[in-house]
Design a protein that fits this description.
signal; binds 2-acetamido-2-deoxy-beta-D-glucopyranose; 460 residues; 10 strands; 5-stranded antiparallel beta sheet; 3-stranded antiparallel beta sheet; Four-jointed box protein 1
């Protein structure tokens, strides 16, 4: 409250009133989130800023970094909230304005100097034979080289995911623990096959639906290996029906959970030993600056590990744009308002597996929830999308196909129904949400064409 000293006593009172009003409205914006009295500052706007590994560590003690974040001084949290208030809606730290509506082509920016990153891509990619790309990270102006893609650490293979999903659906939940899976309504489940899962109970059903649909959208886009497998389950402590037996062993724990009987929850496979991920240079914006696409000098200086990580980030940013997931990089960007170095800190809901591969965790803010809050978050989502002009070619092709056939929602529904036995229980995207998904696919496709055109022009 250091600024209170600058104001008169009346201003202090007014500020407190303002604080209370804004907290109330912010809590409303984050609808569906549990806002626990006393820790609002620590949880907002990054409820997801739970300690690293909290999604992923079982009964082991959290790592050093996790402990230090848990112990963030309350005064810091309170100050953050206060400063958020003073700057809302985002002004100084706001990334460049987007067009504000999805489904529109990003406004051309002829005056913006072409980034060295793009020039490099254009210069190298245009003349580069596809097969000898080992020295160039970019080919065709806008695609990651195949050699680079081949180095991306494997994630969850389709076979491993399918086998875990089968075990999770057929097995029993033998224990439920608190505290390891984010929000206080979630639980860490131990399954009868010995594996573990984060069980997410949505305050709002759209969150569970978002988790499941985001997982299948990742499948549709060919990037599902980066997400832990997700299955739906109906919680029925009293047995009866096929699902009843699954929860029978944890009746006592369920009683303490306050979950509605019959609720549909998501089970996401728990992954051991994940670590934090800080956004790479292109997105390491400081408050008041625009997002900078990676410059050629930085690209040249980057080692294979950094380039391999950027390959995965390019997918992540497209994925989060398509799902309008504000609970990852976007929530960090939002925090630039009061934390100028937030982009140098760990990214919410993104972790690194022991093999170096990125893991996109906790996607419940995607789709329905994110689409409901587009007005608030697209001014962050869109600049992020536009900051990426290098893509995995397979992802770009998938986007192009979904754009040409205009069937993004239909394909998503087909996958969801085929692969999720409980798909019918949560319903699907509304017609309006389905249209938003298609609009966002179309916008991503246009953006890729825009990058391609810029790259070609740079090669002249
Ligand atoms: C996780 O880390 C612990 C401690 O270093 C190690 O014993 C264990 O094998 C690791 N688990 C996995 C799956 O890598």
């Amino acid at each position: 409250m250091q600024r209170a000293g600058l104001a008169g006593l009346g201003s202090v009172a007014a500020l407190w009133l303002l604080l209370l009003l804004a907290l109330a409205s912010l809590a409303g914006l984050w609808s569906g989130r549990i806002v626990e009295p006393g820790i609002l500052g620590a949880r907002f706007p990054q409820e997801a800023r739970r300690p690293p590994g909290s999604e992923v560590r079982g009964v082991e003690p959290p790592p050093e970094a996790a402990t230090s974040r848990l112990l963030r001084p309350p005064s810091q949290a309170a100050q953050k909230t206060f400063r958020a208030l003073l700057t809302l809606p985002g002004q100084a730290g706001e990334p460049q304005e987007g067009p504000g509506e999805s489904g529109q082509e990003p406004p051309p920016s002829p005056s913006a100097p072409r980034s060295r990153w793009e020039r490099l891509g254009a210069a190298r990619g245009a003349a580069e034979p596809l097969s000898s790309s080992s020295s160039s990270p970019v080919r065709g102006g806008i695609f990651w080289s195949r050699a680079l893609e081949a180095q991306v650490p494997p994630g969850f293979s389709a076979a491993a995911a399918a086998s875990w999903l089968r075990a999770a659906r057929e097995g029993r939940v033998v224990a439920l623990e608190r505290g390891a899976c984010g929000r206080s309504s979630n639980r860490l489940a131990r399954l009868s096959d010995g594996s573990r899962a984060c069980v997410r109970y949505g305050i709002n059903p759209e969150q569970v639906q978002g988790e499941a649909l985001s997982y299948h959208l990742a499948g549709l886009l060919g990037m599902q290996e980066r997400l832990p497998p997700v299955a739906l389950s109906r919680v029925e402590a009293r047995g009866g029906g096929g699902g009843g037996g699954q929860w029978a062993s944890v009746r006592e724990e369920l009683r303490g959970s306050h979950w509605a009987d019959g609720a549909v929850v998501s089970l996401a496979r728990w992954v051991d030993n994940l670590t934090d991920v800080v956004a790479p240079a292109p997105w390491r914006a400081e408050a008041g600056r625009r997002l900078q696409p990676l410059a050629a000098g930085e690209l040249r200086g980057l080692g294979p590990a950094q380039l391999v990580e950027l390959v995965q980030w390019s997918d992540l940013i497209l994925f989060d744009y398509l799902t309008a997931n504000f609970d990852r990089l976007v929530s960090n960007l939002f925090s630039l308002q009061w934390d100028p170095r937030v982009m140098h800190r760990a990214t919410s809901n993104l972790h690194r597996a022991p093999n170096g591969g990125l893991v996109f965790l906790d996607n419940e803010a995607g789709l329905a929830h994110g689409y409901r809050l587009l007005a608030m978050w697209d001014k962050y989502n869109e600049p992020l999308l536009r900051s990426v002009c290098v893509f995995r070619e397979a992802t770009a092709q998938k986007v192009r196909d979904l754009h040409r056939h205009r069937n993004a929602a239909a394909e998503l529904l087909r996958l969801y129904r085929t692969q999720e036995p409980l798909a019918e229980l949560l319903g699907f995207l509304s017609d309006q949400q389905a249209q938003l998904l298609q609009d966002r696919i179309d916008l991503v496709h246009k953006h890729i064409l825009h990058c391609k055109a810029k790259a070609a022009a740079g090669a002249l």
